[in-house]
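COMPLEX REQUEST
Ligand: iron/sulfur cluster
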Amino acid sequence: MANIQKAHPQNVQGPLFVDTTCIDCATCFHLAPEIFQELDGKSVVKGQPHGPKEWLLAKRAILSCPTSSIGVSVAPQEFNNLGSGLPFEISEGVFYCGYTSPHSFGASSYLIVRSSGNVLVDSPRFNSQLAQKIEALGGIRYMFLTHQDDVADHKKFHSFFNCKRIIHSDEVNSDTQDCEIQLIGSETVHFASDLKIIMTPGHTKGHMNLIYRGKFLFTGDHLFVDPDLGQLRASKSYCWYSWVEQVKSLEKLAQEKFEWILPGHGGWGYFGVEDSHYKINELVTGLKGQQ
Ligand code: SF4
Ligand SMILES: [Fe+2]
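STATUS: Structure written out below.
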């Protein structure tokens, strides 16, 4: 629970506040850029919410914050009357789950609702309200784990939904050794007619990306969207396995077709087929030029 005694001095005055336990995961200022902003490595409230729509954005941020650093000193009636607003649909049956976990540094998880069984991409923090909402959306058949950093409460979701967890064997450790489907090698896996798994070693050795319907690309920590510039970027400072391999994996990804890019951190974006292709090629060219 957020602590008003630790409220950041730069919050604008009002009931909503961020305390100084914030770990700068970028979740809140992506979800509600009109309300939160980053300031010297911490989030602060830059504009107090007004009306139910803005309070809903604030509530999503409160529930999604991995460190419970966002609070309300005196909740207005409209806040108390709101539901969680999570998960919410981004587009065409692809949902953002919220409830991020401190164990994955606030990584985003997404739910793909599909007639042949829903897929949870990476694991949120387990929360019974969230689990019930997911159950109402058809439950979880598969949990796709991009890499070992973002597995969070995978065991609890597995117990609740009896879903099959998909991970690369190079990511398996004592926590994930019971995952039901452990992929090997570097070849693309056509898991179902609408699900394609691309091996993207680099950030970690067995990192994987998922493409749904040739439209939605889930990138884990392989590729990010820069919200200010609308560009794509990859992080050399957070590359744990091999930067050379990561650039090669980006080059491989540039051969694929997708429109939406949904990363593990910092928010998602719609680019369309041509623009996503152009931007990823631009990124690869830039990175190769630096090598
Ligand atoms: S969601 Fe929480 S931890 Fe993440 S930036 Fe906002 S206040 Fe900080
Ligand atoms: Fe990671």
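REMARKS: The mean pLDDT is 96. The domain at 4-79 is CATH 3.30.70.20 (Alpha-Beta Plaits).
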